[in-house]
Amino acid sequence: MASPRLPRLLTAEEAADYCGRLPLAEFRRLGWGRVRDLRSERYDIIALDAQLDALAGLSPKSTPDAHNDAIDDPEAALDRFIKRA
Q: Which pLDDT tens digit goes with each residue over 15-53?
């Protein structure tokens, strides 16, 4: 039987639990995968997976550039963005 599919964006509580039951305050301080809009704060599960993979020393599973920015150096991500424009 297949496991239920998780939504792409999780609440802080769901994301902290997904990352191994981290204390909520500590998880929020890390800011992994945080996506903000005008009303709420959510956490991108693909960015969380990429961050956990990087911490474990695994190579990213995602396809080129689409989700790799989550674990990249912000300067490198900005450079790629500018080159695409």
A: 999 988 889 999 999 889 999 888 889 999 999 999 888
Rounded to an integer, what is the distance from CA 26 to the centroid of its chain? 15
- Residue listed under structure tokens 């994301």: 15
Joined together, the tokens standing for residue 52 give 């956990």
Identity at 58, one-letter amino acid code: L
Residues 20 and 33: their CA atoms lie apart, in Å, by 15
> Where do the domains of the chain lie?
9-84
Q: Phi then psi for 36, rounded to 5 degrees?
A: -115, 145
- Compute how many other C-beta atoms are within 10 angstroms of the C-beta atom of residue 18: 18
pTM: 0.60
